[in-house]
Write a structure and sequence with these properties.
25% of the residues lie in helices and 40% in strands. With 408 residues, it is α+β, with helices and mostly antiparallel strands. The strands form 3 sheets. A 6-stranded antiparallel beta barrel has the order 2-11-14-13-12-15. Strands 3-10-8-5 form a 4-stranded antiparallel beta sheet, with no helix packed on it. Keywords: Signal.
Length: 408
């Protein structure tokens, strides 16, 4: 009858077989006498292929959408408001009546002015005829110069009275017309400051009307960004709580000066395409495209390796920081080569490469900080080695038992 070896002895035998059965290792030559290639698989990295795309230098700022022009509607005459025809949010056309002012006194003044004009006309006709008759008689020396001068003065006075009466009629007609407060533009009512029964005053703004001929946004930029803005540059709008572009526009006005208090310059952007999310007063992010390069080689900014050198300026005794950038390019799926880079435009996470990397190069984006020039690498996802064959424990126990029985 066979005797089974104790369990602890079997486990020890399996352990020594597993450890000592393979004499090749990191420090042991393989069958060919050289180092085992699997001993140094390389640093694991992730890569992307550099591609070409359009990239733009962008300036971003926030501002509110407003009408291109906001008009303050002020009453031209003072009296009690008798009716309101336009309210907040209403769309009004040019000349449309928005409110009515009590007009009885102004109507009476108009009628009085008309009567005064008729009287002035009659006096003018009478005095003009008298003047021309006196002029004829004076030329024939039938009347004295004093009588002729009196007739001429009376005529001149009647003429002046006629002109005054006409002006008075025009003013009274205009006052009567102004008892109807009308919109000077086609737009939407932004505010209403009067109600029925209020006393309308010539110094009081009754309505604010936003001109609907266009929308605009006004942004304020620091000097370095303000200097780069030019008329006609394209602009994209994004509502502050949304991700998608909801409108387009162009730079139409640039303030010629920097505000001395804030240090900011004003830029006016007119909308050319308004989406459904853009309306007056909404806060938007304005993305101004300063410069665009087409078919540029771009890589993620995360692929860059920054090198900072500290330089001491002996003349000024100041410290200067000099920055340079590089990236690693993988060749033959195993070797990482350092490339010194010349950078261009940066847009979001993408950056333009002017020199150092070409389209189609395989660029390391993860693990590059652990690399040196010509480091051996293993691109993540590749099968660089075959795992050792696993031996089931049951088979190992059976093989050990057979070996023990044979030896006896």
């Amino acid at each position: 009858m066979k005797k089974l070896l104790p369990y602890s002895i079997v486990v020890a035998i399996i352990f020594f077989q597993a450890c000592g059965g393979n004499t090749e290792g990191p420090n042991n030559p393989g069958p060919g006498g050289g180092m085992n290639p699997a001993a140094n698989p390389g640093i694991s990295v992730e890569t992307i292929v550099a591609s070409t795309s359009d990239i733009s230098e962008q300036i971003k700022s926030f501002g509110n959408i407003r009408a291109a022009e906001i008009v303050n509607v002020t009453p031209q005459v003072s009296n009690r408001v008798t009716a309101i025809y336009a309210d907040l949010g209403d769309t009004v056309r040019q000349g449309e009546v928005m409110a009515k002012i009590y007009d009885v006194p102004f109507r009476d003044q108009y009628q009085q002015a008309k009567s005064q004009l008729e009287q002035s006309k009659s006096a003018y006709v009478r005095d003009s005829l008298q003047y021309y008759r006196q002029q004829t008689l004076h030329e024939k020396e039938l009347i004295s110069s004093t009588e002729f001068d009196d007739a001429r003065a009376t005529f001149q006075n009647s003429k002046a009275q006629l002109e005054a009466s006409r002006a008075n009629l025009t003013q009274s007609r205009e006052d009567l017309k102004n008892t109807e407060i009308t919109s000077p533009v086609y737009g939407v009512v932004l505010t209403r400051n009067i109600s029925t029964g209020d006393l309308a005053s010539t110094g009081q703004v009754a309505y604010e009307v936003g001109n609907l001929t266009g929308y605009q946004a006004r942004v304020y930029l620091p000097l370095e960004e303000w200097r780069k803005i030019e008329i006609g540059q394209p602009v994209s709008f994004r509502v502050s709580n949304q991700q998608d572009i909801t409108g387009e526009g162009r730079v139409t006005q640039i303030s010629p000066r920097i505000d001395p208090t804030t240090g900011l310059g004003e830029v006016v952007i007119s909308l050319t395409d308004r989406g459904t999310s853009i309306y007056q007063g909404v806060l938007v992010q304005s993305i101004i495209n300063v410069e665009t390069h087409q078919d540029a080689v771009t890589i993620p900014r995360s692929a860059l390796v920054e090198n900072v050198q500290t330089l001491i300026e002996p003349e000024s005794n100041t410290i200067q920081l000099e920055r340079s950038y590089s990236a690693f390019v993988v060749q033959n799926d195993s070797l990482a080569l350092r490339r010194e880079l010349t950078l261009g435009i940066e847009q979001g996470n993408e950056i333009e490469i002017l020199e150092g990397i070409g389209a189609g190069d395989e660029v390391v984006i993860t693990g590059q900080n652990s690399l040196n020039d010509s480091s051996k690498v293993r691109v993540a996802g590749q099968e660089d080695f075959q795992p050792a064959e696993e031996i089931p424990i049951e088979a190992s126990e059976q093989s050990t038992a057979d070996t023990s029985s044979t030896s006896r």
